[in-house]
């Protein structure tokens, strides 16, 4: 993203808005009136869009609980919660209470940096990729009042990106530096309820590998289309691969 944000991302004509000298990751809120950015340090700065396009954006909040570089931000569109992870091996869920963002620590149990975060479609769970060769699938434990994680392993290098099926909260894809893209079950009975059929298969226990495809380079990113039927991933050898979920079972 560099040092500027394009207003085209939130509608209207393109113009350069200089918020920080450096921006290493960012996330918009649901209506694109606010943006959270990491200025290449351990903080997240939240800016508010002005009523007039030419006016200055205002810094409304600073989230500074992390002790190392923030690596990714995810802003939930339904619950308005902000999710962050960092090189300090932690993740936090931030909830706006009044005019203050309160943080809840997530128990990740990882030994290396968190690299990527994504909320699932219903925002009751989220995933954290990491340098620990695994993905943490996290949900809220109401009895103990904190976020807990269950691990999906079966990777041999850093998981640099994760993506949820937008039509299902039990299917997750991972992009890994071991030259492979994978699709797993992220089913948690206490959260997801009764098992259900998906295009990738039934929902067995968490971590079941539905699909694996090799690439000819590090897999850098992965995503599903809006219907969840097609998976795409980009690898370091300048290729984009598309996978038909209906035909891959």
Automatic annotation (TrEMBL):
Subcellular location: Cytoplasm, Cytoskeleton
One annotated GO molecular function: actin filament binding
Top-level lineage group: Eukaryota
Entries under SUPFAM superfamilies matching the protein: WD40 repeat-like
GO terms, biological process: Arp2/3 complex-mediated actin nucleation
Signal peptide annotation: none
Keyword terms, alphabetized: Actin-binding, Cytoplasm, Cytoskeleton, Repeat, WD repeat
Family the UniProt entry places it in: Belongs to the WD repeat ARPC1 family.
UniProt protein name: Arp2/3 complex 41 kDa subunit
Annotated source species: Prymnesium polylepis
């Amino acid at each position: 993203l560099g040092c500027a944000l394009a207003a085209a991302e939130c509608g209207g004509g393109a113009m350069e808005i200089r918020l920080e000298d450096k921006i290493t990751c960012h996330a918009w809120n649901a209506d694109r009136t606010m943006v959270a950015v990491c200025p290449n340090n351990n903080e997240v700065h939240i800016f508010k869009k002005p009523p007039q396009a030419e006016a200055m954006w205002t810094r409304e909040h600073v989230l500074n609980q992390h002790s190392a570089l923030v690596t990714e931000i995810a802003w939930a569109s339904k619950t308005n919660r902000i999710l962050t992870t960092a090189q300090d091996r932690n993740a936090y869920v931030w909830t706006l209470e009044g005019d203050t963002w309160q943080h809840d620590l997530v128990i990740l149990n990882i030994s290396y940096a968190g690299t990527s975060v994504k909320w699932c479609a219903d925002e009751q769970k989220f995933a954290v990729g990491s340098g620990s060769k695994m993905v943490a699938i996290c949900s809220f434990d109401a009895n103990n009042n904190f976020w807990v994680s269950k691990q999906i392993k079966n990777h041999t290098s850093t998981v640099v990106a994760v993506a949820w099926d937008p039509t299902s909260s039990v299917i997750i894809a991972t992009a890994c530096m071991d030259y492979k893209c994978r699709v797993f079950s992220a089913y948690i009975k206490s959260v997801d309820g009764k098992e259900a059929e998906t295009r990738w298969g039934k929902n067995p226990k968490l971590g079941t590998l539905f699909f694996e495809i090799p690439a000819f380079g590090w897999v850098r990113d992965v995503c599903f289309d809006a219907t969840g039927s097609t998976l795409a991933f980009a690898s370091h050898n300048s290729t984009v691969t598309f996978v038909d979920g209906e035909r891959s079972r």
